[in-house]
Fold each of these.
Amino acid sequence: MNQIRRISPVSDADAARLVSGDAFADLAGQIVATPVLEHPAHRSAFPRATSPRARRWFLGAPVAGVAAAAIIAAGVIVFHGRPAPARPAAGASHPAAVPSFGPAGTAAQLVDYATLAAAAGPAFNPGPHQWIYTDVLQATSSAGTGGYLKGAPAGRLEQQAWTRADYQEYAYLKNGKLVIVASNLPRSAKTGQAAAPAPFGWPPVSYAYLNSLPASPARLMAVIRDNLSRQPDPIGAEGTGNVGVFNAVQALMQNVVLPPRLLAALYGVLARDPVVHFERSVTDLAGRTGVGFSTVQEGYLKEQIVINPRTYAYMGYVDVAVRAHSSTGLDGTVHFRKGQILGWQALLGSGIVQHPGQLP
Amino acid sequence: MPGLDADMWLVSKGATLRYPHPGGPDERRRRFEEVYAANCGPILGYVLRRTGNPDDAADVIAETFLTAWRRLDSVPPGDQGRLWLYGVARRVLANHRRGERRRIAATGRLRAELAARYQPPEYTAELAEIAAAFRSLPEPDRELLALIGWEGLDHGQVAAVLGCSRNAVRIRLHRARRRFAGALASRQAMPSPAPVHVAHGDYA
């Protein structure tokens, strides 16, 4: 060990001498002038303020959520006939709302800051009997939906739900009472346990699996490409190549509340995907402005992932036709006009809780 | 303070413990300044020993103490706070090593000051051989040996920083020392580097 000590690049005395300079005092002053954000992991220690919104718990089958949609059998759907009021940009209860390292104005900044924030924040690793809370706002249209909005996105559907982290149960409120139902996801013949959901391009995504994925964007992209190549069914152009990577990432973000560390790595994957563009300003369904990643598919459909530039949390998605397009299928021909919104969803809040019905 | 070792082990496993402090913003600021004053030198030493780059060191220092400021209730009191800061600095450094660097405007002055005042070590031939043997070890071995040799931590403190048991530290340290001794011996047994003549008159 003496030999290790002999090659120490800096002695304690040298380090003490270096911090005696004015710049270190200056840094301390700048740090204490930095606003302190309430850390989500600390919230449970304080009584939660009751607000009209906190009492308005709704339930509905998630329109685009693979995980919850596969679990839920029935629910109460609440429509709001007008656009939701604008909300502050900071996601109130998203687990990725870790300390901000500054507004992200570029893809590189977003990746860097989200990675640092994830490293500074707590691990997101729910126990099997903890619950994942989600509050999702979804655009609907009186003209109908069917994988996309067929008319103006005039309606709003808000859904609050709880999914047990091991995916064995799902919960919602009915007439003010909490209803817990067993998962109807496929069950293992061996254990009888429901499997974790498998969003497009992914194997079953248990939290153990998600937390085992590499933090390096390059390695994570390799995993995604490998997963796509192993898809059991023919998946067409949307599931191959660089577009397939984008779609797999988007499917995961839409359907699972992700650990911030993985979310940051997925941003890194998108930043290096050559068909993906960084968006400096995207407005989500709740009126919040974020940054985002987008790609144009089939020559007309721009799919945008919305991200909070200060907390780096996933905020939702916006799908819009960037040029007029006609699509003919077995159900007839539909026509999209340029600028038409075909899908719009905002994640208003999410987090780990101990019991269904509890808010983060 | 009884129980803090156990607390640090829990923290290293991802738990969030709280050490709430009484008082308002002034008290919070005072506590941070105490933590900063007590640990700035050791944490700078820790970072510089692992990067040797003043620019990176300035950013890592700023990130580490910014995290401490924002999570002040999680910083244990006393010497245990230093272990907590080592853990944060270690994660921030890991991000830098993965190429996930960022430059912080607030550290411009710090970078300039460190660049002007930090002198990298100049090793003798003997020390250069030791350093080369050390660098040839796997990163976990290097970190373990460095925490003990450079930071002066005992086995329990290393266990808290690395998130493992004291017994695991003891076993891993034994193996790391053996690998270091092997690396050193193999380097000392090697002949002095000399040009090797190859085809076409080039030297490799």
Amino acid sequence: MLLRLAPWVLTGVLVLPLGAGLAMVMLPAFGYLPALGGETFHLGAWRALWERPGLSRSVLLSFSTGLTTTFISLVCVVLFLAAVRGSWLDRALHRMVSPLLAIPHAAVAFGLAFLIAPSGLLVRWASPGLTGWERPPDLLIVQDPWGLSLMAGLILKEVPFLLLMSLAVLPQLAPEQRVNMARSLGYHPTIGWLKSVFPVLYPLIRLPIYAVIAYATSVVDMAIILGPTLPPTLSVSILQWFNDPNLDRRFMASAGALLQLGVTLAALATWWLGEQIVKRLGQHWLVNGSRRRGAFAVAFSGRFLLGLTTLTALAAMVGLAIFSLAGFWRFPDALPVTMTFNHWQRVLPSATTPLVNTLVVGVTATLIAAVLVIACLENEARHQLTPKRAMWLLYLPLLVPQVAFLFGLVVAAESLGIRPQRSLVVAGHLLFVVPYLYLSLSEAYRRLDPRWAQLAHSLGASRWHTFWRIRLPLLLAPLLTACAVSLAVSIGQYLPTLLLGGGRVATITTEAVAMASGGNRRLIGVLALLQALLPFIGFALALLLPRLIWAKRAAMRGAA
Amino acid sequence: MPNNRDSLGITMALTMLAIAFPAAADPVPSNWESVLEEAEGQTVYWNAWAGEERINAYIEWTARQVDERYGIELVHVKLGDTSEAVSRVLAEKQAGNDDAGSVDMIWINGENFAAMKANDLLFGPWADSLPNYPLTDPDNTPAVRYDWTIPVDGLESPWSSSQVVFYYDTALIEEHPNNMNELLAWVEQNPSEFTYPQVPNFLGNAFITQALLELVDDTSIFYEPMQADDFDEATAPLWMFLDELHPHLWRSGRAFPSNSADLRSLMGDSEISIALSFSTTEASGAIANFELPDTVRSYVHDSGMIGNMSFMAIPYNAEHKAAAMVVANYLLSPEAQAEKQDPEVWGSNTVLAMETLSSEQRALFDDIDLGIATLPPSELGEVLGQPHPSWVDAIAEKWQERYVNH
């Protein structure tokens, strides 16, 4: 009975804040915000927005960045998965997934910027010996006008995400059986995987892919560090307008936030169209009987691309780690002349409370979200319901720019007389944690073979018994993965923590972002490594626990 | 009848009381004893930009002092951008929370002050009632009374004075330029070795404002609110200058660093040889942090550099106004100001007027060693005032129009 309420509770928990958040984006966009003297509705904000220099370029940048990044990331992951045969290299690359996922986006961006900049790590290692450069060359690499370095940074983060999502759902598709069947028909295993596993895998990772599109079209922190500046991406422009001391710009910023929502939706629609086209064109290829053509190229490029992204991300982190210990580091020295623990000593003493806050908020939000989402999915499974259309509402928090959306949340909480406090921060995090947990878990849950439960019932097990003894254990790997993703999402939240907590809940991320605004690369290095610590533990547990618990049941260990 | 008259009297007395003590009884700044009394035991949430470890450490030091002296708990709410605190206050106002706001005190600059004042988001007047306020010699120091030409009206209390300075690496260049035209000539000879933060970043704005003030003969027009008709003629020299400058900048002006921190990193990476900062002690501090080589030195242009003060403001709905005032007053004390000026601690210039201090108080400042890359106050030259915000806003807009790719 309680379960039937779950979808209602889930939507209820999200609808009020969502509504409030969205209302406070819509109203100012059309001129209404009494606190700033906007008492009437008009289109002034939109006119101001259209007249912004470089607006169309910003829009185009956001749109193309989102689609290109997602496409390349997906290609990397799919080719790699098609290529893997369980060699030591494949296993080593698998193991890199969790550390790479754990590193905050901004830290990857800082690291990558320092790696590829003309005064960066690579040039330093090659100079002056190979290049003859005593001073850095004047090349526009980072912040290039086409957004290429921004795309590179995003790919470094999205590849491990999509890989993890795929690894979590793969076991229930029994890929070995499919590939073996294909091989017995004479297919090269790589081509066999692409033709027999990928078509059933794609629907299962579709929602995470959509999340990646939404994220990449609206990303702020990476775009500030790596993205173009004249003009920046739309999301960065919006943040600048919201942060403008001239408070009247907030009307235009709100209109911009709605435009951003439109851009993201347009990118999603374009991707969907692309899906349909690929589906049409792909059908012929699937059944054309070609068994080996391209196998070597796929196998090679799969490993190469994933190896390249992994190595790049690692090198970026090595750069940050060296910086966290560096004294002054003059170009083109390959390493700093002096090393010091000074930076760590300055940060560590005050890091305990933020770390504890981060953990408490993250774990609480993840647990609540897990219970709600599982109850919802279990309800669906028991009553053989098709997913409610209203469920798309869940994804709204991922689509609307945070800075616009949160203002409405704070207004709503204040109107209800709820003072800033830790539980409000948890509630705020739920808005971003629930969608990720839902999209990471729902497909795995829905696609679980119903015959397991039917079998249990026929042996006399009650529904709850079946849930605890059959369904949950079978879904342990994807569930833990989903929780680890959610924990990382919670840990990464800056604005919700700051604004809803009224500054009373300091987390490692609020500390890190505040410190990053000062641009001291050494302290940024320290805080980025600290910030990566908690999610890293989460991802490591998500991969390790199923192996320990199912030590004797290879097929249930999830990520191979 | 007598009864009626009595009740009328009581009603009148109550009404008068109500007028004397408006809603929720905000503290009365002029009655300092009562402010101190009310402040004891309160917690002040001080919203302050936290991108600099040394500033954070100084705020922690202040927290210990006000706890010991006044029994006030001071919490530093660490911000990446001051506007985040403004957002919070705005949201509370929108929701009708007019007396229990969560932001007690904001470290604020001129632009944010102008906006908050214009939108009635500030409490006050209170700052001119602080016991330590006279130490700033307000009658003879316009910078204390006008923030970016906007009258302060007691709505914020001065904290730090700052001035734009250039810094350069003596290991890379021998002689630094002394004015904007020399800078242009230098950049033409040393292409890609100079840049400035992207407008509308406040340091980027400061650079183009400085250029405008240097390139125009009569600058008085910029200290009045802007008349749209005057704009093109008054600012023409600036655009000519920037059009000539940009092709020779770092990355040929196709990209700009986003803020002063980015600019400093470029200097640390030897990508550029001259940079600028809104803090006279930036170079010394960065050397101490290993961010810049110890060959970096500061300099100023002959005609003086733009300067201003940063202030403490209390939002109109702050919950702990009394304690916030006590903290602001402590921050103005010679002891706290001298500690702040010590480059070992932070190295931010005092807002106190030395003539108003006793000889022991002055000694606190005389003993400070400024650090190798910091110019002593005597060499900082004339301080140019910030033009009226309407001008800065307009030239920043024009900059976007001219230099952002369409």
